[in-house]
Amino acid sequence: MKMKNALHRFDKPTRLRIGIAGIFLLFLGGAMLVLLPPNLPAEASRGSISTGAPVNFAFTQPLPLALPLDARKVALGQRLFHDARLSKDDTVSCASCHSLGTGGTDNQARSVGVAGGVGTINAPTVYNSGLNFVQFWDGHAPSLESQIDGPVNHPQEMASNWPQVLAKVVADANYPAIFAELYPQGITEATVKDALATFERSLITPDSRFDQFLRGDANALNAQEQRGYALFQSYGCASCHQGQNLGGNMFEKMGLMGDYFADRGGELTDADKGRFNVTGKPQNMHEFRVPPLRNVALTAPYFHDGHAHTLEQAVVIMAQYQLGRPMPPADLNDITAFLRSLTGQYLGTPL
Length: 351
Ligand code: HEC
Ligand code: HEC
What we know:
Elements: H1 2-7, H2 12-35, H3 42-46, H4 71-81, H5 94-97, H6 144-147, H7 149-153, H8 162-171, H9 175-182, H10 189-201, H11 209-214, H12 223-234, E1 251-253, H13 260-264, H14 276-279, E2 287-289, H15 311-322, H16 329-340, E3 345-346, E4 349-350
Antiparallel strand pairs: 1-2, 3-4
This protein binds heme C (2 copies).
């Protein structure tokens, strides 16, 4: 073997060093492949942060500017999303709790449904929800389609059921013709879900200033936001809040480095148990799907219990209970400035 013969010209320690260097180079090559995903434009991968910190594109990517969806199904789903007849007494629509004008949430700690019923958990945004690996804080719905059973049947949300919903949709003056055009099966539970889920998938919010920065516009973030971006990575926030949605792709325990629930006080609710409610396994106690941080400036109050009222409070709690370290005010200001740059656009208009 030529390689082996060539190496024999060196003494043993040198051969060892060459071997180690070779392994290191292989590792570096592998890491480069991961760090520079092929779908990024070349300029973006050359970007650097003015603080001198290396830019790590591995943990997130810009949102797509548009998705290939059937525009007619999107329009039908949009109509259903705003239709209060999906609820028992025709008073509550999906948009009642997920208003598109307020970040896709209701900005309440707990949502109010039919007949003033108060729910048990904070409403997450519907924007970019199609990017999350599962739906709900505890991940109990594997898809947007199956998620819809939740609000329709939930006694504190729409308090309805599918036979009732379908009867109202069938009796409408316009729906039957629209459905007949789009779905050979007409109006069924599955087609109503398909239209709603297609609309939800269309709710992407591209072109935030952060995404413009990722795409190579070095001036899209100011110096403070760029420092915040670097700190978001160096503190380790990005180890959980990662992927295109800066979250929504793994479960993590709330209170890794301290007992959040004991310190918060109040009663421990079923909702506080998180993923445990789905699996029944003790190791999943207090685990939640890491929430996505896109548009987070608009979705207060924060956490599954709506306990944090401001972004600053939420980040201080994160530093203490997830990372186990205090965060000086200067770092806090930089990180929250960065988080505010994650607000995107819906259909070309800033949220
Ligand atoms: C009464 C308020 C209310 C109504 C009405 C409502 N939702 Fe929700 N929605 C919530 C709450 C609260 C949650 C969180 C529940 C949980 O995680 O256990 C949620 C969760 C979701 C999620 C999951 C988001 C995520 O990131 O996990 C989606 C998607 C969603 N709702 C869509 C809808 C659709 C579609 C409708 C109409 C069919 C609807 N919602 C009606 C309050 C509401
Ligand atoms: C170990 C994983 C982990 C780390 C590290 C982490 N987070 Fe979180 N983050 C979570 C989880 C889980 C939640 C949801 C907790 C809950 O609702 O009880 C969350 C919630 C949040 C929220 C509230 C979002 C919402 O919609 O309610 C913000 C803001 C946030 N994190 C920012 C940060 C920042 C900034 C850092 C770094 C300083 C950070 N996180 C570090 C896992 C993590």
